[in-house]
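Objective 1b. Sequence-to-structure analysis of PTS sugar transporter subunit IIA.
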Amino acid sequence: MTSTTVDAAPRRGSRALAVLQRIGRSLMLPIAVLPAAALLLRFGQPDMLGKDGLGWIRVAEVVGGAGQALFDHLPLLFAVGVAIGFAKKSDGSTALAAVVGYLVFDQVTKIMFSHSADLKGQVLITKVTDGTAAPAIDFGAKNPTDVLGGILIGVVAALLYQRFYRVKLPTYLAFFGGRRFVPIVTALAALVLGVLIGFIWPVFGGWLTDFGNWITGAGAAGAGIYGVVNRLLLPFGLHHIPNSLIWFVFGSYNGPDGVVHGEINRYLAGDPHSGGFLAGFFPVLMFGLPGAALAMWRAAPPHRRSAVGGIMISAALTAFVTGVTEPIEFAFMFVAPVLYAVHVVLTGVSMAILNAAGAQLGFGFSAGGIDMLLNASKDNTKGLPLIIGMGILYFVIYYFLFKFLIVKFNFATPGREPEDVESVAADPGSNPELAGGGKKPSRRRKPDAQEAEPAESPSPTTG
């Protein structure tokens, strides 16, 4: 085996990891819509603005409808968000291509599914014309591919944009060149993809449903595995991929507004058996990691403690209120992998214990105080005192365990780095080679005339 062959495998693996990381990062844009959708939907429910709350029934209907609209069109939002996030140089034509592609994909797959024995019940309705009942395709029904179809179209639109956004066509077709060509080619690709998915999805979708039912039906073990996998993939930016499956795909509930899929959608729709795969995050994100942040603060040397405290206390408050914990986790995951391994195990334990205890609590954004307050009074929220009690216990465990391990093994958590490292970090100009990796910043070369992006043809109305 030659050295070239040996080196090729790691390069292929690194390229695959880079692609998965891009997909994971691109999922953040559509997921960022969820807080707005969850807030609107929650305030529009009967116990908030509705008849059992403030009694503003019409206002509740409008507000709830606004939130429901976003959840009903999550696949389209994922298509647009993934296309913009995955493309290296995205612009408005990327989003337009994603919209065009998903609309074509949605209609084509529904036509294909109408001929499938397993899926036709999800896309066909009975219409009565002249007293005669006949089956017809319900193009307004939710697509069985759900958000996975949107993600797939988003990736395709992004790749086609990168390939064709500079394409030049013959003079008589020049108006359709460049970025204007991207939505056209995306529509054609979505047509072909829709036909392929029409043949593949009845089998693949069945496997996916069976796997989702196994995970959600595994109870405490399934929740624990999900918690461990979620935190293990965080350093690589891949945790959004299993999150998307658990949150928006696995499990189904036939609610008042139709069938919904995924743990978040089911919980917000009122499924009495949902939220068990989300409740375990609250003790970790709201309480445990803030305890870890305070431990890193107190473990810092006295002369650095004030600087570290400002950062860690701010990060702890952010985690407690919003559930955003990356600033805390990235403070120790690379400098102290042992601490991160402990964090992974504790996350799995929390998920498993609360699931086994029957606790249920969901969120629209993350497991923070805002979502806890909003959803505390929901009918399908269960075991809230247990969740809070376990959170307090986790705060104590994280604080003392992290502080002990940091001091015992002298981990270089914030404030405990060597003095020379801190001085360079505080004043990068004092040692530009260390601060900049030994390289001086290079001036950006102006593009040559041949490299310049071709101007798009003017519109016929202005020409």
